[in-house]
Amino acid sequence: GLIASHPWDTIRIRIQSARSVQKSGNSVALAYEIFRKEKMRGIFKGMTYPLIGQIAINALVFGVQDYVERNLFKEVDKSSLRDRVVTNGVSGMIAGGVQTVVVCPMELMKIRMQKQGEGRQHVSWTMKKMHIGASSGPVLEHYQGPWEKTMQVLREQGVRKGLFRGWWFSIYREVPQFGIYFSSFTFLKAKMAEFRQKSVDNLGFPELFLVGGVTGVATWLWYPFDVVKTLYQADGAPGKPVKYKGMWDCIAQSYKRGGWRFFWRGFGPTAVRGFVNSAATFPIVTLYMASFRPGERHL
Hints:
By secondary structure, the chain is an all-alpha fold. The chain contains 13 helices and no strands. Helices cover 69% and strands 0% of the residues. It is globular, with a radius of gyration of 21 Å.
């Protein structure tokens, strides 16, 4: 799911952080432009961070959500769909808050990698450390790998102002988003079982795949906060000027640049990414948990 969805994530980040609404372009044109100038490497920039972090994130999210739902709400009537939707939603919000300790630094570094070398011609591995002077032509930016770029942020900006820049943005995005994530899946899964005239526990992989995908799209209804978070985390990279003083300044400047439409740009590729990612994740987790604890209702 991550490999299939990451190119859409790169397009999302490029559109969200474009200097103007006009320059953001459409998804297909931008994908072509990235591939033409930066080759396949450009599409998959920054994937190292989610490849490493996704394991920890999924373990935290599903582990914390399941623990909270089973212990904090153990007296709740689980036969009621409304109660299940509410308890899974609240449990998801708590899980979303917990996993920001991994998500915030991971996404900051991913965004910085995805923005690196934006719009420049692809430079081969053997040329990446060459700096061509003004007399010889344009300067080729030194392409930093994941470890090198992480060390630069830590060395020049530290942990709080470096790796955890935009942590409150992550909280504002992740907490409501994961509430929607788990409550939507619970509701849609029940409706799918009703439509298919099956028990919720007897839904197969194709049905869970569809429900998971639609859930992934529904989760991004909280999308405007993601746009602002991307802008804030992309800003202030080492050696570059800081544009935004804080959250409200970032929101105000963004609104001046494009009005309310500014906060929805890039939603198309994000919806595709959300569908692909959740369609792959939810069925596997649901079926695994059902086999691990048979006879119990999950999500």
